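I'd like us to work through together how a protein chain folds, taking it slowly. We need material for that, and I hope you will provide a protein of your own picking. Go ahead whenever you are ready, and we will take it from there:
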Amino acid sequence: MRSTMMQFPLTLAHILDRAGRLFASTEIVSRLPDKSLHRYAYGDFHRRALALGGALQALGLKRGERVATLMWNHYAHFEAYFGVPCAGGVLHTLNLRLHPDDIAYIVNHAEDRFLIVDDVLLPLYDKIRANTNFEKVIVVPLSGSSVPAHYGDYEALIAQSAPLSPPAMDEEDPAGMCYTSGTTGKPKGVVYSHRSIVLHSFATAMVDCLGLGNRDCVCPVVPMFHVNAWGLPFTAVMMGAKLAFPGQHLDAVNLLDLYQSEQVTLTAGVPTIWAGILQALEKEPARWTLTPGMRMVVGGAAAPEAMIRAFDKFGLGVVHGWGMTETSPVGTVNFIKRETAGLASDRQYELRAKQGVPTPFFEIRAMSDKGEAPWDGATMGELQVRGPWVAASYHGLEDDTGKWTEDGWFCTGDIVTIDAAGYIKITDRIKDLVKSGGEWISSLDLENALSGHPKVREAAVIGVPHSKWDERPLAVVVVKEGQTATADELREYLAPKFAAFWLPDGFEFVDELPHTATGKLLKAKLRERFRGRPWD
């Protein structure tokens, strides 16, 4: 039997139009460089996004051409999220935390035609200008200073723009683009279609995913320049939720002030952000009045169980998730299922420290040398995934470096276990596992345990070459301000939780750990630094 349902393309143009019609009075708040708050509503956003699209068309933007952004999280970047793709272009967000040489490489590889840049980031643009060739650079005057004459003025373009003439769009047309962090080799480009973004938005809005709805106030701390701020801006517009953007001010005090003034109900970021938030709350527990039950979505790295327990004491709920640039990014989200709701408290915390279960239409499996690993919560394997918002290739690369299997599974490089209830637990990246005497040791499990020690702010565990055991684990630790710790007390703290051969043979205490541009531990630098460290 043939379906008689009308074919309706899934595009961002529909989501933008819906927001303008149904949620025109809903507020959008942005913290500006001087820390003041810019306020307007979805009606203004809708009009200005269309004006931006019209201005880009007037500049000659053609279907499928890339428009790069070098911007923090704020209202103008938000307008570009919709104005560029609704004009037929592809929004290419540049990671401003990367080295200028890497940014220039990405711009040239993507063949970006135009650039929209914050005025406060012009010094960064100056570092890549000689190695790039943008046809037009448009400056957003966030700080109130005048725009240099040889650049386009974002606000002037918006004011002078003719209405957007939406091009005919297919849901498979590219809408967005993001490059990987480049921790192994050159950054690689991932392209997102209108369809994949819309489907991803539907999934993340679901109750047992992020549960994002019209009554929420959403604060994306995760940068809009990387993986679409985990899709939150798109989902928020689809549902008409209030938005509070932190701008460039990502310290704990400014974030907590914003959470309080706007009564944020859902926020998202990497564990280093939440570690700072927790430290501020513990230092001044009565300073802020936050929305009870505010959901704090954590990704990019695992949040230690101790952190989850600590936030519970403040009435704030950590929500674990997992994803990658190649998965748009949300693939799994943690929630307590009906059959696990009656478990003892300690067992529930153990579950909440995992990365959750796959969203609908997102398939997972763990593969080992012996084939697919059983879902027993113990057998490790490399996580492979597939689904309608998982990339099928990298932009402009003929050699996909074996990342995709012949039957369409994407090989993530994450080592996981999957339990009988479908909860995945990331045990390590393939390159970060410690192999000692033929046995695998999870550096991530050791790091999470160490982070639970009351004196430890952050910890990394790496494998260091050993003449007898091939590798042995070395713990590199940052202690909290005003605290001191010894190797013996940390080893004693770990001993009841792990087999003896898992315990680190050495501890190094440092002032800070290196991180990637997206907040992940950069263990390659630690391995290089301690490669020749002698063992006792």
